[in-house]
Design brief:
heterodimer, A: 272 residues, alpha/beta, Rossmann fold, six-stranded mixed β-sheet, four-stranded antiparallel β-sheet, B: disordered C terminus
């Protein structure tokens, strides 16, 4: 049990008649990079929303270090060390980058409004510490010098990084990244990929990744799950997933596997 | 080409003409003339009418505006003048036509005030510039002329010669400024800000005792609205809760002080200072009770519920149900005046009290805004869902914002009641809530200078120009629409603090001190 940081046991979430997530099982071991892929509308983001507490699954359990967390308040789940980013960047747009990170640090600070009013020693201590920590985090994600920019004024790639910085401020043990390379060019995608690997290696954060870019997914994932119509249709290492018939058919439609096989042999022939 | 110009300009002129007709129908021309008259130093007694020459000034200004706005972006200078001329003629023709009807009414002495309340004979007479029938062609000529002049003004200001002249003057002034500041010693640069504050403080200290009771009253009203505005800003600007019922919290503060310091109905006579604290606590309790059921509401729904809350409190105060307890519609009279060091309060001491309360409110606001609490509020306003996923306990912070804001409202209410020596249900109408909302929005959300500016603009000016009072709703509406178009972020928009340097400097120092300590130990 304990080697899994997070487990989903037969998790289902319905919207009206639509089964967005249907009895999905996941077991994600500590320190891994785990990818969830699938066609659009497969229920990947819904699964993320269930884990981070935006939705309460109808049935099933989500176990974090063996304790069920489904149905808990979102802010409680965040305080337990689960951070996330969003498919469409969701920053606090009219606040500066520094303030965004400082809000990310919310859980790690204790001073309340009274401290702020009287400037108690605790407030002073936490204030200097949090400022330094925020600068350090901005530096870590490569946003040094952008701290006083309004978040909405940053270029798109930097907004993505800022979102990760905000998530990291929470000192997470589990980080949910929802399409971190969406809308990026090849160079930016490579940067983000390396950055994600660095997060795992340097900060020892377990990462769950939703991603459409197969190069990224196959490059950095330890294990991959494939969702289609809310159901998990395959799980395994990148190599296993690449040769899985059901996965190929989910992406290319019925008969897709044969098509892919034909394409592959043709390419091998050409190469030869 | 020419046809298009004529069509477009005459359409503009038509709109201006129709607006003018409506302004006359609601008697706005008399008010405008009265205000111009007052601004130029000729007082107009209440109930009497301004002189005709001020009416002419109003019409000329309006005509200039017509010509000004008729000028389009493209085209030659003569084309633009032509546009102004056409617009002026159209407006003039329409107004003259309207004048003809009014003249007919005047001649036949037909009283239409049953249908159009404001259309009295003296009003018509002044609109026709006291010239009766001759006024009609005068209108036509006047608008044609001013339309042309307005257009040429715009053409002149847009011309290169003018912009170059303005630039020259600007650079000259800047040079002069630089030369003067370079002459000043360095400490002026460094401490100039504090010097400014000191002067402000001195003025605030000196003015209340010098400028008379009426100005003190107006200034106090502005100050109370600043406090109310800060309270509302904590709810609306920081935590993003659309609260319209702040008058209810204001009433709680006011009634607490009133009930605890008046011989009728209870005769408690607790004294001003403790009852002010009680008033704030009651308001906080009110905010808390209001907050609990509305936690899940957002946006429009929240606005409707808080609006209803404000009205419920007012109607309760007005009802027979509570007459024995709160004095009902008559309100509470003879509120005992506070004393400070055994000296009773007069208008000057109230001005000081309000200045101090305002200063404390501003101080508290700044401390709260730039803290973990303030940032949590801001995050809730920006994106509640993300704030929650970042670890902010949204409910707790929303309630906290309501309570803190309510405390400010209670404070303002308490001072308000004591200063007026009276408070009744009519002091706490929906209009109060809307006024405060306008102060915050017109001034600029999350910006203290903006709120102060807004209070002066919306509370101070109407007090000083009493004529506007009757048109306050109209002016509010117009001003709000105008603001939303021209300055959607308020008169003095807020800006976010620069924090990165603060953090970086701290980091460097830390590294340095750590290094020193390390060396010391070694």
């Amino acid at each position: 049990m304990a080697e899994f940081i997070i487990e989903a046991v037969k998790v289902s979430k319905n919207f009206g008649g639509l089964k967005a997530v249907n009895e999905v099982d996941l077991q994600i071991s500590k320190g891994s990079i785990y990818s969830i892929i699938g066609p659009n509308g497969a229920g990947k983001t819904t699964l993320f929303n269930c884990i981070s507490g935006f939705y309460t699954p109808e049935t099933g359990d989500i176990l974090y270090y063996g304790t069920p967390i489904q149905g808990m308040p979102t802010d409680f789940i965040a305080s337990q060390g689960i951070s996330r980013t969003y498919q469409n960047v969701r920053l606090f747009g009219s606040l500066t980058a520094m303030e965004n990170v400082l809000i990310g640090l919310h859980n790690k600070l204790q001073s309340n409004w009274l401290d702020a009013v009287v400037h108690s020693p605790r407030f002073a201590r936490e204030n200097t510490w949090s400022m330094q920590e925020a600068v350090r985090l901005l530096d870590f994600v490569g946003l040094k010098g952008y701290g006083d920019f309004l978040a909405s004024n940053l270029p798109y790639g930097l907004q993505r990084r800022l979102e990760i910085a905000r998530a990291l401020a929470n000192n997470p043990r589990l980080l949910l990244l929802d399409e971190p390379t969406a809308g990026m060019n090849i160079q930016e995608t490579t940067d983000i990929t390396q950055f994600v690997r660095r997060l795992r290696d340097e900060l020892e954060i377990t990462i769950i990744l939703i991603e459409h870019d197969m190069k990224v997914v196959m490059g950095i994932s330890d294990r991959i799950s494939v969702l289609d119509y809310g159901m998990k249709i395959a799980e395994g290492t990148p190599d296993e997933i690449q040769s899985n018939t059901r996965v190929i058919e989910a992406y290319l439609g019925p008969g897709g596997a044969a098509l892919a096989e034909k394409y592959r042999t043709q390419r091998q022939k050409n190469n030869a | 080409m020419n046809k298009d110009i004529i069509r477009a300009s005459s359409r503009k002129g038509l709109i201006f003409g129709i607006v003018m007709i409506f302004l006359v129908l609601i008697n706005f021309h008399i008010m405008a003339a009265t205000m111009i008259s007052k601004l130029l130093g000729t007082n107009v007694l209440r109930g009497s009418f301004p002189e005709v020459r001020f009416m002419i000034i109003f019409l000329v200004l309006y005509g200039l505006w017509v010509g000004w706005s008729a000028v389009s972006r493209e085209g030659t200078a003569t084309g633009k003048l032509f546009e102004g001329l056409i617009a002026g003629i159209t407006t003039g023709a329409l107004v003259a036509l309207f004048g003809l009807i009014l003249f007919y009414l005047l001649e036949t002495q037909t009283d239409v005030r049953r249908y159009l309340t404001n259309l009295s004979f003296p009003s018509i007479n002044i609109f026709l510039l006291g010239l009766n029938g001759v006024g009609i062609p005068v209108h036509l000529g006047l608008f044609t002329l001013t339309g042309l002049v307005g257009a040429s003004l715009k053409v002149g200001i847009r011309s290169q010669l003018f912009t170059r002249t303005v630039q020259n003057i600007k650079s000259f002034v800047n040079n002069l400024k630089l030369r003067i500041t370079s002459l000043l010693p360095a400490y002026v640069h460094k401490y100039g800000k504090y010097f400014f504050y000191l002067v402000m403080l001195f003025l605030l200290f000196l003015l209340p005792s010098r400028w008379g009771a009426y100005n003190n009253f107006v200034f106090g009203m502005v100050g109370l609205y600043v406090i109310l505005g800060i309270g509302l800003n904590i709810m609306l600007g920081l935590s993003g809760q659309f609260m319209i019922g702040i008058a209810a919290l204001f009433a709680m503060g006011a009634y607490s002080v009133a009930l605890l310091n008046s011989p009728i109905p209870h005769g408690v006579m607790l004294g001003f200072w403790p009852s002010l604290v009680v008033g704030m606590l009651v308001a906080v309790l009110g905010g808390l009770l209001l907050g609990l059921p509305i936690m899940r509401l957002r946006g429009d729904y929240l606005a409707i519920v808080t609006l209803a809350f404000g009205e419920i409190i007012r109607i309760l105060l007005n009802s027979d149900l509570l007459t024995d307890f709160t004095g009902g519609p008559r309100g509470i009279q003879n509120i005992q005046q506070p004393t400070f060091l055994a000296r009773p309060f007069n208008d000057v001491s109230y001005a000081y009290l309000i200045i101090i309360a305002m200063a404390v409110s501003i101080f508290l606001y700044y401390r709260l805004e730039n803290s973990r609490t303030g940032r949590a509020w801001l995050s809730i306003k920006e994106d509640t869902l993300v704030a929650r996923a970042t670890g902010v306990d949204v409910q707790k912070y929303k309630l906290l914002a309501l309570c803190v804001g309510a405390a400010f409202a209670g404070l303002a209410g308490g001072i308000f009641a004591a200063r007026n020596q009276f408070t009744g249900p009519n002091d706490h109408t929906l209009m109060v809530s809307i006024n405060v909302l306008s102060v915050v929005i017109v001034g600029g959300m999350n910006s203290i200078p903006g709120i102060i500016l807004g209070s002066f603009a919306l509370r101070g000016l109407p007090e000083l120009l009493r004529e506007l009072e009757t048109y306050r709703l109209l002016v509010f509406g117009a001003l709000l629409v105008f603001m939303m178009i021209v300055r959607p972020e308020g008169l003095w928009p807020s800006s976010r603090p620069d924090l990165e340097e603060k953090g970086s400097i701290g980091l460097q120092e830390n590294i340095e001190t750590e290094g020193k300590e390390g060396r010391g130990n070694g």
